[in-house]
Design brief:
Blueprint: H1 6-15, E1 22-28, E2 34-39, E3 45-52, E4 57-60, E5 64-66, E6 81-84, H2 87-102, E7 113-116, H3 126-137, E8 149-153, H4 157-163, E9 171-175, H5 181-187, H6 196-208, E10 216-222, H7 230-242, E11 248-254
Parallel strand pairs: 4-7, 7-8, 8-9, 9-10, 10-11
Antiparallel strand pairs: 1-2, 2-3, 3-4, 5-6
């Protein structure tokens, strides 16, 4: 835009950025899973995964580059928070994955699901996340409505309560990892700010806002010899029963091991 005055161009450069993600690498697995490492305009990493399934496809996207929460079993936590992504950067991840899988300009296949389970804590990127979901729901956009989206949080209690007040919203999943404060403090230090009783109270409030037939999910990563005993399974059941949570389901997640981390996946 060299036809604009030099002073105006300088001010625009200071106040606005045209942000475009670039694909640095793409890994295609035998099962068709596509893993992307993208970079932001300021050279920060963003990870996105396209997962093909028989009846529908799922795209796992990131809400932040890095993560501030320091979950002890998560490799991304070692990076710390580099930056929260913009709404545009969230949407662009989905567009890149869809274009790669189906071709540019092809309408989004019906049933495509999105999960905010990549890098970052989505509820610490709440405003850009919700803005991105609104953009993607547009009929002239991607036509992916919030009901096709699941957002996973480590337990940001105020945002769980806020989500309960929103009518047109994504599904909720909560990463739990432990059923006692003592262990969860170690595995997920966010628990020191919002311990289990506070988290469960917020979940109960969210449960009351569910429509008929709706449920929400607790995700429980399985760590060998750490949180996978029979007694800990009973603790988990007792925790949910104590707080009267009747519309929650438990999703047991196999741990994805990495060399710097001291954890192994539980045996089948």
């Amino acid at each position: 835009m060299t036809d604009l005055p030099k002073e105006l161009r300088a001010k625009l450069s200071e106040r606005a950025t045209v942000s475009t993600l670039t694909v640095e690498s793409r890994y295609l697995s035998e099962d068709g899973t596509r893993r992307y490492l993208m970079k932001t305009h300021d050279n920060l990493p963003v990870e996105t995964v396209f997962i093909p399934e028989e009846r529908r496809d799922t795209i796992c996207f990131s809400s932040q580059s890095g993560c501030p929460l320091k979950c002890d079993f998560c490799l991304t936590a070692k990076l710390g928070l580099l930056r929260t992504l913009t709404a545009g950067e969230i949407v662009e991840q989905i567009i890149i994955a869809l274009n790669d899988a189906y071709g540019e300009g092809v309408p989004t296949p019906r049933g495509t699901n999105l999960v905010a389970m990549g890098a970052g804590e989505p509820f610490l990127a709440f405003e850009p996340l919700m803005k991105a979901l609104g953009i993607m729901a547009e009929p002239k956009g991607l036509s992916i409505v919030p009901n096709r989206v699941t957002v996973s949080t480590a337990g940001i209690v105020p945002r769980i309560r806020e989500l309960a007040t929103i009518a047109d919203r994504p599904h909720l999943a909560i990463s739990l990892a432990a059923a006692t404060d003592e262990l969860r403090d170690v595995l997920m230090p966010i628990n020191k700010k919002w311990p289990l009783d506070e988290l469960m109270a917020a979940c109960k409030e969210f449960e009351k806002s569910l429509k008929p037939g709706e449920r929400f999910t607790f995700e429980y990563v399985m760590l060998d010899g750490v949180n996978d005993s029979e007694s800990q399974a009973r603790q988990l059941a007792n925790l949910l029963n104590h707080h009267g949570l009747q519309r929650a389901k438990i999703n047991l997640i196999p741990h994805n091991p990495a060399d710097p981390l001291p954890y192994r996946p539980s045996s089948p």
